UniProtKB/TrEMBL annotation:
Lineage: Bacteria, Bacillati, Bacillota, Bacilli, Bacillales
Alphabetized PANTHER family for the sequence: ABC TRANSPORTER ATP-BINDING PROTEIN, TAURINE IMPORT ATP-BINDING PROTEIN-RELATED
Protein keywords: ATP-binding, Nucleotide-binding, Transport
Name of the featured protein: ABC transporter ATP-binding protein
Record GO terms (molecular function): ATP binding; ATP hydrolysis activity
SUPFAM superfamilies according to UniProt: P-loop containing nucleoside triphosphate hydrolases
PROSITE patterns per record: ABC_TRANSPORTER_1, ABC_TRANSPORTER_2
One Pfam family it belongs to: ABC_tran
Record has Transcription regulation as a keyword: no
Key word ATP-binding present: yes
Organism this protein belongs to: Heyndrickxia ginsengihumi
Amino acid sequence: MSFLNINNVSHTYFTSRHVTKAIDHISFTVEEGEFVSLLGPSGCGKTTLLSIIAGLMQPTEGEISIDGKRPHVQHSSIGYMLQQDYLFPWKTIEENILLGLKMMKLLNETSKHDALQLLADIGLNGVEKQFPRQLSGGMRQRAALVRTLAVKPKVLLLDEPFSALDFQTKLKLEDLVFDTLKQFKKTAVLVTHDIGEAISMSDRIVLLAAKPGRIHKIFNVPEELRELKPFSVRSKEAYSLLFNEIWKELESLETDE
């Protein structure tokens, strides 16, 4: 059995006036240590699917398993990183990155040391006693990454975590996150609308069609690109070829709507 299993998952939103099917019979697997991106037009259910994987909501149909168990958002097996860093402004960076450990009753001298060491490893040594307002957007996202990884999750879920950053900071953080996940052999699922980001960071890309969200096509990123840092990937011919292929598929989806 694969590490992450999405089996025949559908989800419908009900209101007093409308019934909307967000995703329809989605099935795919993710191996341990693999990085998979969810890509697609607006309304294809990327964030809905990620929320179901995280255990934030139960699917109307189908099931999810992570390492053989149903996902639960309060378990340390799942790390969730969002577009906003959601650091508490009245807490220091140290207090923020230790918050998850404290809430899950995992905070001790060893876990605290490991979290602070990770903070230093990603270039934030010396900011422990500062507050979020004293850091740049990119630095705050790095601190948010440390908070997420501090609980040592088995799978990391990334919901457009770089989209609010300027392009230069975004490229630097892509490299940083890529290196960090490879170092700790983390399994990751990224939601993005950026084709370049999906190609440069992923092993595979799941392209979803919209209304309702469903799998249109799954792309395997060439082996030669997977070993490179995201910034370096963008200069390769294989990157351009895959970018154009995915672009054409996205255009065909929009034409069909």
